Amino acid sequence: MITLYQLSKSFNGKKVLDNLNMRFKERRITVIIGRSGGGKSVMLKHIIGLIKPDSGRVLIDGIDMNTLKKKELNEIRKKFGMVFQDGALFDSLSVFENVAFPLRQHLNLPEEDIRYKVYSILNDVGLNGHESKMPSEISGGMRKRVAVARALILNPEIMLFDEPTTGLDPIMSDVINNLVVSMHDKFKFTGIIISHDIKGAYKTGDEIAMLYNGKIIEVGTPEEFKDSKNPIINQFVSGSMNGPIIL
Ligand SMILES: Nc1ncnc2c1ncn2[C@@H]1O[C@H](COP(=O)(O)OP(=O)(O)O)[C@@H](O)[C@H]1O
Ligand SMILES: [Mg+2]
């Protein structure tokens, strides 16, 4: 359903994606790992059409994102839910209104249906009772839950998470990783998670893919990653400064 074909992108003469190929399995969770500044967010932004490639293609259900007009792109974006790295909540809106926002934007529902949907998803992510709070009044972990609820509210086929646990302590990271897995069990989306947390990747990923030097150099199950013969994977997984990765 999501295919990246010979994708290349440079910024200021620096190649960030270099003929990258990848196919994401439908209704599974794929975790993309790789170094900071390695192009993970750039890759994700290509998938939702926020960045256009210099060359290559992003195919969503066989449709080339690059050929779409603005209106068609908006239509296809409804398939996506995205949790941004910083959560990107609206500071001036309550938890309830943050989650209701995509509904108000895209659907013309009666207020009672909006209330029902928002209360239901907030319950799913463990935030019942916090509806009227403002983002500034809740913890970082709770803000992540709001961001997840808002991304899920239109029941998207595809969920993209850009480093959902960065900035959280290890225990809260585990809570959020578990939330992603339980939401996936319930809603069965195709999930793409960007992470540099290998422990979280093992926990949440059906598949793991490593982005290195602008390419996906390996795709496999967590078990296959643990047993990888590739010294680059081994170095990344063990978090060692010694190895083939040039610092
Ligand atoms: N809009 C942009 N303009 C110029 N350079 C960019 C832009 N977006 C990303 N980059 C550069 O591309 C590289 C990869 O960035 P990014 O995808 O954010 O890395 P990460 O793997 O940490 O998510 C970085 O060197 C970054 O500075
Ligand atoms: Mg990033």
Structure, explained:
- The protein has 247 residues and is of the alpha/beta class.
- It folds into 2 domains: 1-79 and 157-247, P-loop containing nucleotide triphosphate hydrolases (Rossmann fold, 3-Layer(aba) Sandwich); 90-155, no CATH class.
- It has 9 helices and 10 strands.
- The strands form 2 sheets. Strands 6-7-8-3-9-10 form a 6-stranded mixed β-sheet, sandwiched between helices.
- The protein is globular, with a radius of gyration of 18 Å.
- Bound molecules: adenosine-5'-diphosphate (ADP) and magnesium ion.
- Magnesium ion (MG) binds at residues 40-41, 85, 162.
CATH names the topology of the largest domain as Rossmann fold
Query: Mind summarizing the main beta sheet?
Result: 6 strands, mixed
Give the ligands present. Answer: adenosine-5'-diphosphate, magnesium ion
Strand order of the largest sheet: 6-7-8-3-9-10
- Portion in beta strands: 15-25%
Residue runs with pLDDT of under 50 for 5 or more positions: none
Average pLDDT number: 93
Tally of contiguous helical segments: 9
From the coordinates shown, what is the CATH architecture of the largest domain?
A: 3-Layer(aba) Sandwich
Q: How many separate domains make up the residues?
A: 2
CATH class of the largest domain: Alpha Beta
Whole-angstrom Rg = 18 Å
